[in-house]
Amino acid sequence: MQAKEKIKQSLELSVTQITGNSPAGREIKLEHPAEEAHGDYSTNIAMTMFGNFKFEILNLKLNSPLEFAKAIVEQLEKNEELKDYVEKVEVAQPGFINFWLSKDALCQEMSLITEKGERYGSSDLGNGKTMVIDYSAPNVAKPFGIGHLRSTIIGQALYNLYKFLGWQTIGDNHLGDWGTQFGTLLYQITDKNLDPDTLDIEKLQELYVEFNTKSQENPDLKEEARLWFKKLEDGDVQARDIWKKVKDISLQEYERIYKLLGVEIDFAHGESFYETALDGIIEEYEQKEIAAEDQGALVIHFPNEEMTPAMLRKSDGASTYLTRDLATIEYRKNEWKPDLIAYEVGAEQELHFRQVFAAYRLLHPEDITKFVHIKHGLYLSPSGKKFSTRRGDIVRLEEVLEEAIERAQKLAHGGDGQAKAVGIGAIKYSLNQILFLIGRKCLF
Length: 444
Prior knowledge:
The chain is an alpha/beta fold and 444 residues long. It is 49% helix and 12% strand.
């Protein structure tokens, strides 16, 4: 908005004229007051500057933020160009400066909105820059649960914001399609002699829960699952065939949910996509002596970091989440050359991402790519416990969406399409309030 930028420029000039200290580098916040009676915009720059340059301002015989604000307004009133945009400026306790826009400025802005349409408010702030955002990332062979909703919606909102601000924006759905949980399913399917083609997402979930219940009584079953996952990693034909069918069943289910949510993600590179790169990653860390053997496993110890060592390869030779995430970064760097890689993932993964970023820096100390983990909290059950897929204790996302649509239908007088838009829109809106709280550290 032209008026907003003009007010900011005028404030910076006025403060500099009074104090000799420019507020450049300190964000001048112009916000919409909660009450219309306080104007169209309000700023706390007088209080902020008084806090930073108290002695200098006191030497000017301005003994409070309120007096400083009045001095700023006196300077603003001398600015003839500002009068084209601002009708009135007032000072309010304890030092706010409130602005009322002129009718001409409002009319000009309305014309601009009409001219730009959906592009109104966009900018070229990110021109020439690329960001990759990793979001959603459901686990294959499990129903799309409520736990992945925040990552999906907040991640999509961040993707949209960066794109709107001129960045080349790439969304990557890092599917959980690898790991020991597939050893669990491979054991179950082969032990029961099931035909993978007859399975659906609900049956896969049932098999997973059943295995974890049985393994409580017979811990040896967990070793069977580890052996099956090792077969999968080693390219066993039967294991690969079952795994591919299970993955296809899952992807069909997820696409249906994404369509319901109105979410489209550019790429869906699961963990398995990086399988062939893992040996090379491990070899690099060994050659540069960043990782070393520790009780049969290959481990990275972080120098000068108060952080738990990270496992690059298990003692049985299997890869870890760390290895696969490092391979993912290498791919993204080579493929897209991003300036920023953001991960919209739950807060419980904070240590993991600290390890990933630190491990990457050890191998590439010269790399200036910015890495950000955008954290959100967990949905908890009514009892306060974390939902558990192993126990079958989950809330299916589709059920939540259906209930939201049903509630909207009861309130609305329109058709099903309107109820769907209102119901799902309400869920998205509630989640994107979180974005305003956590997103500033990521931007820009």
